[in-house]
Amino acid sequence: MIEFYKPIIKSRRKSFWLCGHKPYLKLRGKVKTIAVHKSGGGLGDLIQAIPFFRNLRYMFPNAKIIYLGLYQRPFCDSIFKNIPYIDEYIEYRMPGNESTFKEYFNFWKKHFNKFDLLIDTQSKFPPGFWLWLLNPNYFLSRSPFFSHWKFILNSKKKLHIAGKMLFLLQVLGLENIDLSPAGNIEKSYLSFTQGYLNKFSGPFISILPTAGHPYKMWPKEKFALLADKFYSLGYKIILAGASSEEGILKEVAEIMKNKPIIPLVDEPRFGKDPIYSASLFKSSLLTIGNDCGGLNLATFAGCPVIGIYGPTTPTKSGPLGNKNIVIHKGMDCSPCKWFLQNCNMDRKCLKDISVEQVFTTAKELLSKLNFQFEKRGRFPRS
Q: pTM of the full predicted structure?
């Protein structure tokens, strides 16, 4: 019996003094501008931050919300623009050398005492210090030295990355958390993708055989065998990834007995703009892949996913949503003690995951989802 992945997003202990109060309700009339400092702006980082910004918007519906930090530009521009809870982006680098100190000083002069509420999602001393110097009216940080609200965050090792961010909103009184990472996909993207996929007969399953680091990748041969098993049941396989990963996608296709669909080969925009990839996942019954940004992109599109995890742990970075499954051996050396290099276990954490295990899990998930959604006409029968 399959079990959906449920990330841990709530700590057992809140602030010392909260006691059921909701400080954010008192702040609503005072806070007009909110800046959120967020480090790590890759594809997966942005998508896993969506629940934080969605819940922050719920708490402060009339405030201007600013993303303060860096994200991967220009690749993630379309994703960023399709997060409706962020009103503005301000590029910010923490000072570390002579040039960045000058940059920070100019930033400080421009934004000193300009934010009603500044939220630092990091827990280290240096980021908190430089942001505290901006003199916001209210400062909320996981660094206890500077935050106006003092609290203890228990169970750090068990909390999901999104949970650590959302805990800050719990400190302000948030109770009912919306954990959905779903974002907007403009009709123009969906129409283009539908027109492209009309050349093939579905139903479709998307596979992501790549990852940001090769040590996180399940063997290509296993992905190829898995894809052929789906073909035997009448599904069509979409191999998806970024333009830089085209070579790996073609290698998987060459190993396969059946010819998969590789959209970025036919239409390069599928490999350059994540929203086009998201629209592919929107048209898929299921997405299967490694721990990578693309897996999170599928959850952004509302597509159920099966994540294959080895050296990384799904406890902290598993896919958000309520229809997802992770396959993870949970070995003693995971998360990887060799920092994804020089593994003396020959990547046993990934190689021990069999094709049959993933295939059986996928069949069970598809069966369950078809049962749940068939009445709504969302998924075609397989």
A: 0.91
